[in-house]
Amino acid sequence: MLAYIVRRLLLLIPMAAGMVVVTFGLLLLIPGDPASVLLGQEASVEAINNLRNALGLNDPWYVRLGAYFARLLQGDMGRSIFQNQAVSEIIAGRLGATIELAVVALILACLVGISLGVLAATRQGSIVDTVSMIFAQLGVSMPVYWLGLLLMLLFAVTLGWLPAIGRGTPFPEALWAALTGRPQVLVDSFAHILLPAVALAANSAAIISRLVRTAMLEVLREDFVRTAYAKGLRRQRVILRHAFRNALLPVLSVVGLRFGALLGGAVLTETIFAWPGLGQLTITAISQRDLPLIQGIVLTFAIIFALVNLVVDLLYAVVDPRIRLG
Amino acid sequence: MRLSRRFRNISLILGMSIVLAIVICAVFAPYLSAHGIEQMDMRNRFSGPTLTHWLGTDNFGRDLWARLIYGARVSLTIACISVTASALIGTTVGLAAGYFGGWTDLILMRITDIFLGFPAIVLALAIVAVLGPGIVNVAIAIIVVAWTEYARVVRATTLVLREQNYVQAARALGAHPVRILVKEILPNAIGPIIVLASLGFGTAIISESALSFLGFGLPPPAPTWGWTLAYGTRFMRDEPWLAIIAGATIMVTVLGFNLLGDGLRDVLDPRHLSRSAGKKK
């Protein structure tokens, strides 16, 4: 197992280096003089020269790439052009909100997706199966920003049950407040996150439900399931203890990929629900063409995605010995 | 099994019908609407669906139906460019990686993994931010991530096909690798590529409309679906149908391509049907 972990960690190094190169490449894509393009036509010559120096544009690209690598290794992502603050500080201030939203959405997606998938597979050909397949098709096809708007219109504007925008108290603090006798803080926090999390989770729930259904149907045909039935075990026990546990394996591998999709989806969801996370910061950075900040955000998203996939791979290897031994 | 197969057949027919209807609307847009996209009818502002304005009008009395069918041209054009280019790039990479193996495979697949490691919309936004808006730039932003899917699938298919007898025979006869890839392997790998392309249309349309919705797609007056939806949200409280109809248009179109892709997968790869349908106990 240790050898597998070391091998996976070593593989992460060229992957991360490649991501840094791609992120750095964004600067090279800018047509013409990047400093003039980033600051706009009305920028003074002095401001353009300052930015050229800050971005190191007077050096060849490979020197800049080397310097970019060196800075990143020291945890320095550069300074934001418009916020005059370290990019890493700005990102750190927003990251928690996005992670919170993505994690809650992932939990919702897994709960709904797995339940629907198991229900559909165990009642194959029934109305439950058909409805869940229709749900899955709609979930995959529905743009996250449109679903978010519909949820907001229904539950916030029309019914007034939930807040339309903003974030409540961060979850760890809200949990502490609830434990110290102020449960309304946690309720408020949950009320704020519910709509954006549901909007974000719908697509992943649909994909997971399809996958679980397919995996369950495969497993239900296996000999060990037939043997379990032949031993006289109850259907519920066969499905939950024997089939379901094996069907969960392929789902685990998809969870990592879905987390990446949720991070991307957060950009749209956060914009609609004014959720103060990394997604909203992305839009601000891109509107201002704040390239160091854009590069920092893109790299942060990619590294989080890579780390989540690493954890999922390791978990997969723990659950299925064939992976680490193969 | 029977219900599932019937459901899949319905998927294919329904998907084809939706896609065909959208394509017809896009191609014949000038003949299907009496109004231009910027033509204002101030006496009928926020009219709601009527005989004159089938899907209603916005705050300037602009016809929503006209905006949506002309918008289909933009969405389909960008989807066509991005799907074609993604398929070409991804297929070439996948064929080379799968056929040559070794270092070629290792390097090409690690590059693929790197691009796959970025959340698609974030990288697309960053690319549009540096390149600026425009049909080609939006398409490039979509292609940069979309080609990876083709590369992985085509590589997997090529790994199986290169061991087939007819490929071995061609190699023994001294055929050039490019000829073997184009004449022997590619025709047999085309099924999964067609399925991915169909599903890719849906993904491209969602990505393009997301970029437009966020204000980074084609600038107005281009009648993009994403922008029409974003514009409709300004009147969400009192006139919600503008945003609802625009969003429903995107969803139905993507649904059409997804159903078509799923249906094609079952036609071109019957093993998938048996896997997903299973066998009822």
Structure description:
- The complex is a heterodimer of chains A (326) and B (281).
- Chain A is mostly helical and 326 residues long.
- Chain A has 14 helices and no strands.
- Chain B is an all-alpha fold and 281 residues long.
- Helices cover 75% and strands 0% of the residues of chain B.
- Chain B is built from 11 helices and no strands.
- The longest helix of chain B has 37 residues.
- Chain B is elongated, with a radius of gyration of 22 Å.
- The C terminus of chain B is likely disordered.
- At the A-B interface, helix 1, helix 6, helix 7, helix 9 and helix 11 of A face helix 1, helix 4, helix 5, helix 8 and helix 10 of B.
What would the keywords be for this entry?
heterodimer; A: 326 residues; mainly alpha; B: 281 residues; disordered C terminus
Which SSEs are present, and which pair or pack?
The complex is a heterodimer of chains A (326) and B (281).
Chain A lengths: L1 H28 L4 H6 L5 H11 L5 H13 L13 H36 L4 H15 L2 H15 L12 H9 L3 H38 L2 H8 L4 H38 L5 H10 L3 H29 L1 H5 L1
Chain B lengths: L1 H26 L1 H4 L31 H37 L1 H15 L3 H12 L3 H27 L3 H8 L4 H37 L11 H8 L8 H28 L1 H8 L4
Query: Beta fraction of the residues of chain B?
Result: under 5%
The helix content of chain B is over 70%
- List the helices and strands of chain B in order: HHHHHHHHHHH
Annotation, overall tally of beta strands of chain A: 0
Write down the secondary-structure element order of chain A. Answer: HHHHHHHHHHHHHH
SS-derived structural category of chain B = mainly alpha
Radius of gyration over C-alpha positions of chain B, nearest whole angstrom: 22 Å
The radius of gyration of chain A is 24 Å
Identify low-pLDDT runs of chain B: 277-281
Short description:
The complex is a heterodimer of chains A (326) and B (281). Chain A is built from 14 helices and no strands. The longest helix of chain A has 38 residues.
